[in-house]
Amino acid sequence: MVDKLVRIPSGIQGLDELIEGGFEKGSTILTLGTPGAGKTTFALQYLYYGAIKYKEPGIFITFDESKEALLKHHLEYGWDFEDLEKKGLFLVLEYRPHQVNKLLEEGGGIIKDAIKSLGAKRLVIDSVTGYSLLFKDEYQKRESIVDLFELLKKWGTTTLITSEDSSANNTVVAGGVDYLADSIIQLRYEANGKNINKQHVMEIMKMRGTKHTNKICPFSFDAHGLRIFSDLI
Predict the structure, then answer these.
(1) What are the Cα distances from residue 27, in Å, to 149, 155, 222?
(2) Cβ proximity of 218 and 5 under 8 Å
(3) Are 123 and 61 in contact (CB under 8 A)?
(4) Does the residue 3 lie in any domain?
(5) What is the span of the domain harbouring residue 92?
(6) How far apart (Å, rounded) are the C-alpha atoms in residues 25 and 5?
(7) Given this model, what pLDDT does residue 162 score?
(8) What pLDDT sits at residue 36?
(9) Cα separation values, 40 from 43, 66, 129, 147, Å
C-alpha cells in the first residue's frame, strides 16, 4: 500500500498556496540563487516559522558564515533564534574545511546525533556550494555531494539546501545536485523588462508529486521576512 503524501508548511509567506499546501515531508528542496537573491533568508524563515508556528525543531548547518553573523543579520525580521535555541527548537552547526571529511567518514556524526537529540524535523544546509569547495577536484566534489544526499535520506528530515546558481557561475555544484533534489526553487534579483529597477523573483523549476505554479512570481522583504506574490510578471 502506497503511503499518503504528507505536506509540511514552508513558513514562507505566499508560497504554500502555490505548491498544494507545502513541501513534501522528508523531501529535499534545492534553493538556487545568485548572491543577494535571498537564499539564506528563505532558509532561515523556513526554520523559524517551522519552530514558532508548528513546533518543529530545526537545525541550520553552515559552511560559509559564522553563527553570530548569520543570526545578527536577520534580527531585523524579529527572529529571536537565541530564544528558540534555549527552548530546544533550533541549533546552528558550523563546519570548517578540516571537519568535512570526518563528517562523511562518520556517517554524519555530530549532525546525526543532533537530529536525534533535538528531534529535528527540519534541516538546512547553507550552502552546498561552500561544502563542495572544501574538496580538491571535480570528481571529489561530485562524489561528496552524492554522499551527502545519501545521508539526508537516512536522517529523514525535510531538508532545504541552498546553492549558488549554476547558470550564473557554471560550477559543477548544481549539476551534481539538481537531479538528486526532489524540488528546485530558483530565486533571482533581476531587471524587469517593463521597468529599469531590479526586483526579486521566484520560479519553481521542479517539485515532484506537486501541481505547482508555473508563474514567475515576484517577492519582497517585509517586517516578517520574505513574502511571495502570485502575480505573473
Answers:
(1) 11, 11, 28
(2) no
(3) yes
(4) no
(5) 26-228
(6) 8
(7) 92
(8) 86
(9) 5, 13, 13, 23
**CA 191 from chain center: how many Å?**
24
Place of cell 574545511: 97
Looking at residue 196, its pLDDT comes to 66
| pLDDT on residue 170 | 42
Q: Average pLDDT for residues 172-201, to the nearest whole number?
A: 77
**Number of domains making up the chain:** 1
How many angstroms separate the CA atoms of 140 and 146, rounded?
10
CATH number, domain at 192? 3.40.50.300
Residue 17 in any domain: the answer is: no
61 pLDDT higher than 70: yes
CA pair distance 203, 32, nearest whole angstrom: 10
Question: From start to end of the chain, where are the E strands?
Answer: 7-8, 23-24, 28-33, 58-62, 90-94, 122-126, 158-164, 183-192, 195-207, 217-222, 225-228
Task: Answer positive or negative: Cα dihedral of 12, 177, 153, 128.
Answer: negative
Instruction: For residue 16, give the 3-state DSSP assignment.
Output: helix
* Helices and strands, counts by H and E, the chain: 9, 11
Other C-beta atoms closer than 10 Å to the C-beta of 89 total 22
Q: Calculate helix-pair angle for 138-155, 110-118, nearest 10 degrees.
A: 20
Amino acid at 46: Y
Write the DSSP assignment of 72-113 as a string of letters. HTTGGGT--HHHHHHTTSEEEEE--HHHHHHHHHTTTTHHHH
